[in-house]
Write a structure and sequence with these properties.
Layout (H helix, E strand, L loop, with lengths): L2 H15 L25 H26 L3 H18 L6 H17 L5 H13 L21
Helix pairs in contact: 2-3, 4-5
């Protein structure tokens, strides 16, 4: 493998790990702990996902350490430090209560405007709270649904 190709793989791996950012554009990576778990999510699936992610990160740290000629534990510590820094730099996510209140406001306005019946609004609230759809308690984007983002 050429030196250039090796550097490309290294940069791609760093971008995938979410550790690039100073002077290099890298995609934002959402970490598993960032997602709000829904009541319907399987604990076993979450555990499996976490285990697979931890295994990939360990493999990546080992490969990166080998490429850089440094101990694996040093790379692992650096990656963890960068992850914590990125986590601290992210804006705090609204609480479930805040998201529920915003959804309730939007639904009340939709009922008042005649776009929904109260029964429909109640059904949407129940679905969001039970994790059936994005919104308070559910997974997915945080806009509450099409046409409601940012309102």
């Amino acid at each position: 493998m050429s030196r250039t190709m090796s550097k490309k793989h290294l940069l791609a791996g760093l971008a995938a790990a979410g550790v690039l950012g100073v002077g290099i554009a890298a995609p934002t990576v959402a970490f598993a702990e960032d997602a709000t778990p829904s009541p319907s999510a399987s604990t076993r699936q979450d555990t499996d996902r976490h285990d697979r992610r931890a295994e990939r990160q360990a493999e990546f740290a080992e490969a990166l350490a080998k490429e850089l000629g440094v101990p694996t534990d040093k790379v692992t510590a650096a990656l963890e430090k960068l992850h914590e820094q990125r986590k601290a730099d992210r804006p705090e996510r609204p609480s479930t209560e805040d998201r529920q209140a915003k959804l309730a406001e939007r639904l009340a306005q939709a009922v008042e405007d005649g776009k929904l019946t109260q029964e429909q609004a109640d059904a949407i609230t129940k679905a969001a709270e039970s994790g059936v759809m994005p919104g308070p308690g559910g997974r997915g984007h945080h806009g509450g649904g099409p046409g409601m983002a940012g309102k």
